[in-house]
Amino acid sequence: MSTKTGSPRKKLAIVLLSGGLDSCVTLAIASKEHEIALLHAQYYQRTQSRELIAFHKIANHFKVPEDRILITEIDYLKKIGGSSLTDKNLPIDKGETGSVIPNTYVPFRNTLLLSIAVSWAEVIEAEKIFIGAVQQDSPDYPDCRKEYYEAFNKLVEVGTKPSTHIQVVTPIIGMKKADIVKRGIELGAPLPLTWSCYENNDMACGQCNSCILRLRAFEVAGYEDKICYFENV
Q1: What is the domain partition of the chain in residue ranges?
Q2: Closest listed residue to residue 20, CA positions, set 2, 4, 35, 40
C-alpha cells in the first residue's frame, strides 16, 4: 500500500521505551524506517515516576499518537524481589561492577517485557519489536546478550500464529555507550529528556553504575550531558 505521495507506507514496529538513553536512541533509529508504537512497563522500580515523565516527554517529541501507546504495570516483580531496583532494603551498587552481575539486575525482566510486546504485536500487526539492549557497556546482564535475543526470536517464531512474522531487533546491542550517544546526537534524539539514574527521581545521583556509564559516555563522545546531577558530579 502507498501513501498519497506514492511512497511506500512504513511498517509498524513496537519500541520498548523506558525513558532511558538507550531506549530513546533505539526509538530514533526505529522511527527512520517504521511507524512507531510505544510500550512502557512500570514494575515498581525506584525511579518509576521519573521514568514515566521521561517516557511521556520522549513520546511527545516523536509525536506518537495515544492509540499507539501502551503503559503497563507489573507489580509481581516487586513482590518477587531480588533486585535493588525493586527492593529498597537492598542498597544500589555504586561504582563499576566489572564482570560481576550487579544487584540492579531484575531477574528475567526483559523476557516479561518482551512477552507483553509480542502479545501486542500480534494484535496490532507489528512486524518488529525494538529494544535498547546493550551488551558491551552493560554490567553483564544475562538478558542483554546477543544469544539471548537469538533464542527469544526462536521462541516467538514457534509461539505465535503461523500467519505472523514478528522479530525482536536490538540495533545498539554491540555498540559502546559513547557511540550510542554520538548516534543519538546524529539522529536528533532528545537525550536531555532521558533519565538513566537508578536511585533518584529529582537529580541524578552520579554514583550508580548507570549514571557512571552515562557520564563517561558523554565525556568520551565529546558532548555535554544536560541533565542535572546531584552536587554537580
Answers
A1: 11-232
A2: 40
